[in-house]
Amino acid sequence: MCTILLPDVALLLYRICRCCRRIYVKLFHTIFHALTIPCVVVGFIAVLDSHNLANPPIANFYSLHSWMGLVTMGLFALQVFKGVNTGSNIHPGSCVDMIHQNFLILLCCEGATAAFRASLVPIHATFGITTFMLAVATCLTGLTEKAFFSLGNTYSSLPQEAFVVNSLAMALMGCAIIVGYIVMREDLRYRGHLLVSAQAD
Description:
Blueprint: H1 2-16, H2 22-52, H3 64-84, H4 95-98, H5 103-108, H6 110-151, H7 160-184, H8 191-200
Subcellular location: Membrane
Main location: membrane
GO molecular function: metal ion binding; oxidoreductase activity
């Protein structure tokens, strides 16, 4: 659930927070995403152990849920990699070019990198919301898979466990709808992105 909650907070914080300087909002956005990494690693190891140590062992990576999980983790890793290492030859001779365009340097050298960062916003935002929605969809398929494996034919009679699973799934869908709506609202977008984009054009 941390793979949903922490990115959820990171997305909403970045979109709607107006109470502090933008550099701090970006820093907290990064921190919440960074906190997701150990959750993903621990969850991945726990799943592999539960499959490999079962008697008899359970096959890995055969279900839709596992495939979606791998795609989601791949997109998340790509976002992290591109956030930490953003390429080269942006502004030759600038502080960014001299220090290999590290993400934190990009944040600190806001003036020198404004146009470049503005050009990355649509790509980063699209991959970010896509990764979040895929994480929700992966959780939903995982809940369904677990319910069918654990409850079997009793699932249709809606025992207490099935009610809990279905309620959790509905809460996840509600979260995805609300976060998607807030993130896509243009009037909640930080105005600095619009100004920098206009200047770059």
